[in-house]
Design goal:
This protein is mainly alpha-helical. Helix content is 47%, strand content 0%. The relative contact order is 0.04. It comes from Panagrellus redivivus.
Length: 109
């Protein structure tokens, strides 16, 4: 058990030492890479501005998703309004049917 502990600590020490940056050797500074080579990944790149959020989310085909959602909501509201109107007419028809067809005032709540 003690052996495994020593081996594990030695591995951790090796990983730590390997991750340390190399000390400078006093030679000339490294030249930038030639054109066509990828830039140094450690160089600081300018931070790009964040895109402005305007509420429009575009689908892969280019249509605005928020407009589609708004149309679907309006369609659902219209359907609910029509169903409520139909229920109201049906309740009025049933109420009038019991009175021989004479209109009756709706009960007060």
């Amino acid at each position: 058990m003690r052996f495994l502990l020593i081996v594990g600590l030695a591995c951790l020490l090796a990983v730590y030492i390997h991750a340390l940056p190399n000390p400078p050797h006093g030679g000339p500074l490294a030249s930038p890479p030639a054109a066509g080579y990828p830039p140094n990944i450690y160089d600081k790149s300018p931070i790009e501005p964040k895109p402005q959020v305007n509420g429009e989310v575009h689908a892969p085909k280019g249509g605005a998703i928020s407009n589609a959602i708004a149309r679907a909501i309006e369609k659902k509201k219209e359907k609910a309004r029509q169903e409520a109107e139909a229920r109201k007419k049906e309740a009025e028809r049933v109420r009038n049917q019991g009175n021989g067809g004479t209109p009756v005032a709706p009960p007060s709540a």
